[in-house]
């Protein structure tokens, strides 16, 4: 029991010393205050959190999520080439990519990819 208590004391002492050294050595500047702010995307942390934001930002984030999920759906097609006949996978993959291209074309026509403000 004495050995366990002495080891715990030693570990806690070493941890406290390391934490104090990290606190003293770390460089803190005025710019770091903005990094620790809870808000992102250009919001001012001093204002209300219920301010409206640009719908353009939301659309771009949504398009990013769609194409991010698309990559995770295309990757298993490559693995399934080893298991099934190649013409079935090629047809499915082609159909999937055509649907994605049509969706991208629709977003482009709707103006969701227009970067002008």
TrEMBL record:
<keyword id="KW-0496">Mitochondrion</keyword>
<dbReference type="InterPro" id="IPR038430">
    <property type="entry name" value="NDAH_ubi_oxred_su3_sf"/>
</dbReference>
<dbReference type="GO" id="GO:0008137">
    <property type="term" value="F:NADH dehydrogenase (ubiquinone) activity"/>
</dbReference>
<keyword id="KW-0812">Transmembrane</keyword>
<feature type="transmembrane region" description="Helical">
    <location>
        <begin position="55"/>
        <end position="78"/>
    </location>
</feature>
<feature type="transmembrane region" description="Helical">
    <location>
        <begin position="84"/>
        <end position="105"/>
    </location>
</feature>
<dbReference type="Pfam" id="PF00507">
    <property type="entry name" value="Oxidored_q4"/>
</dbReference>
<keyword id="KW-0520">NAD</keyword>
<keyword id="KW-0679">Respiratory chain</keyword>
<comment type="function">
    <text>Core subunit of the mitochondrial membrane respiratory chain NADH dehydrogenase (Complex I) which catalyzes electron transfer from NADH through the respiratory chain, using ubiquinone as an electron acceptor. Essential for the catalytic activity of complex I.</text>
</comment>
<protein>
    <recommendedName>
        <fullName>NADH-ubiquinone oxidoreductase chain 3</fullName>
        <ecNumber>7.1.1.2</ecNumber>
    </recommendedName>
</protein>
<keyword id="KW-1278">Translocase</keyword>
<dbReference type="GO" id="GO:0030964">
    <property type="term" value="C:NADH dehydrogenase complex"/>
</dbReference>
<comment type="similarity">
    <text>Belongs to the complex I subunit 3 family.</text>
</comment>
<feature type="transmembrane region" description="Helical">
    <location>
        <begin position="6"/>
        <end position="25"/>
    </location>
</feature>
<keyword id="KW-0249">Electron transport</keyword>
<dbReference type="InterPro" id="IPR000440">
    <property type="entry name" value="NADH_UbQ/plastoQ_OxRdtase_su3"/>
</dbReference>
<keyword id="KW-0472">Membrane</keyword>
<keyword id="KW-1133">Transmembrane helix</keyword>
<keyword id="KW-0813">Transport</keyword>
<dbReference type="GO" id="GO:0031966">
    <property type="term" value="C:mitochondrial membrane"/>
</dbReference>
<keyword id="KW-0830">Ubiquinone</keyword>
């Amino acid at each position: 029991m004495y050995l366990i208590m002495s080891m715990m004391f030693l570990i806690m002492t070493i941890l406290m010393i390391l934490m104090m050294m990290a606190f003293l050595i770390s460089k803190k500047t005025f710019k770091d205050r903005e990094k620790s702010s809870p808000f992102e995307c250009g919001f001012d942390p001093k204002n209300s959190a219920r301010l409206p934001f640009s719908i353009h930002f939301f659309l771009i984030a949504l398009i990013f999520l769609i194409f991010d999920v698309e990559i995770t759906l295309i990757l298993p097609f490559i693995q399934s080439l080893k298991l099934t006949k190649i013409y079935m996978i090629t047809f499915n993959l082609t159909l999937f990519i055509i649907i994605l291209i049509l969706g991208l074309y629709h977003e482009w026509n709707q103006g969701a990819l227009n970067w002008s403000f």
